[in-house]
Amino acid sequence: MTRAWVPARAGSPFPVSNLPYGVFTTQGDPQRPRIGVAIGDFVVDAGALAQAQRLPYATALQAATLNPFMALGPAVWDDFRTCLTAWLTDDAYGPLIEPLLVPLTGARLHLAFEVADYVDFYSSEHHATNLGRLLRPGQPPLHPNWKHLPVGYHGRAGTVRVSGTPVLRPRGQRLPAEGAPPDVGPSQRLDFEAEVGFIVGVGSELGRPLPLEECASHIFGVCLVNDWSARDIQAWEYAPLGPLLGKSFLTSLSPWVIPLAALEAARVTPPARDPQVLGYLDDADYPWGLDIELMVCLNGQQLSRPPFREMYWTAAQQLAHLTLNGASLRTGDLIASGTVSGPQREQWGSLMELSWAGQHPLTLACGAARTFLEDGDEVVISATAPGTGGQRIGFGEVRGRVR
Asked: 334, 119 in Cβ contact below 8 A?
């Protein structure tokens, strides 16, 4: 097992097999966002290191966001990862790199990339089945199209924010009772959704669908997503076009972007598809299931552990479908998985499921009951995955407190 010479506490989520990217500032230099890579208990200034080593792409790593570096493509991503791994595991580079290390405790983390477009999918069969049973009792829980294509909607890129951004309780139209006229007010059914996000590094040409085998080369990395949802606002506005105010008020992202290369050991075969999917979605030769285990905590108490390996549709299939009509990708596009839920109750990724739409309140350790989120509640989503050499790598966390 290759180890870095950089100090790290036992069980650090950031071993050298991970090397996630982020953007940080320090208390001594708060106006200068820098690209950093987490290693052990530190973040290394990637731009300064690349400049010191006279790498040809150093300028891109000195930007205030990851976008210029992501746009350079997989060959550059792989080269820098190879260089970093070599330098961080060779004591001889200590004198060069040690002055460029900042303790994680002293780094303020920002949104790592500028979001271009945002598309949210609905790719968990377990989540879609649960919501179908709740919202359409007595009918088939899945719509007829669900197993034939990755269902998704376009979200609002302008309200994607970094972990820690306060969650302001949204207002909107609600239906107070069946048959009553709608009113306007703050959501009484505010919910979280535990998701995984895929970030596009290299764009694609308008008019050219991406084949499955090319999709992974466009994805730079992976982060955690909390797609906050106002269920009462969403329920009233949903027909006939789908989510708007119930979703667009805030989407929270974890600050660390895990390179897709770090997840090679986490690749698994996705669940069997029945019926057989159409050819452009047939991923038998390009399976991109990922064995990521999420954990959701409310006010410090674990609520669930959603398993991403259970997702019916993969990110590669989502990109293949998204571009089928010729739609182009752009550097910084965010592709969210949709709520991650497993077959067991303790694996569900939203309060809508965990409280069964409020019918079965959860009792917290403090004795309080919850059906949906109350003011002051804090939700924290974290995740780990298998890394190389038997290590587990971490994703950091995405957190938000309701105000």
From this structure: yes
Amino acid identity, position 258: I
Closest Cα to residue 186, out of 396, 374, 44?
374
Strands (E) across 76-193 are located at: 101-103, 107-110, 118-121, 152-154, 160-162, 171-174, 183-186, 190-191
Would you say 342 and 116 are in contact if contact means Cβ atoms under 8 Å apart? Answer: no
User: What pTM value is reported for the model?
Assistant: 0.97
In this predicted model, what pLDDT tens digit does every residue of 258-312 receive, in sequence order? 999 999 999 999 999 999 999 999 999 999 999 999 999 999 999 999 999 999 9
Of the candidates 221, 208, 191, 212, the one whose C-alpha atom is nearest the C-alpha of residue 304 is 191
One-letter amino acid of 47: G
Residue type, 294: L
Instruction: Give me the torsion for CA of 48, 51, 56, 60, rounded to 10°.
Output: 30
CB-count burial class (<10 Å; 0-12, 13-18, 19+) for 331: buried
Alpha-carbon gap, residue 49 to 299, rounded angstroms: 39
Tokens of 76: 């550059």
Catalytic residues, which ones? 127
Closest CA to 230 of 219, 215, 216, 244: 244
Rg for the chain (alpha carbons), in Å? 21
Q: Is the dihedral of CA 79, 118, 209, 262 positive or negative?
A: positive
Beta pairing, strands 219-226 & 118-121: unpaired
In Å, how far are 6, 194, 358 from 229, measured between CA atoms?
Answer: 40, 11, 15
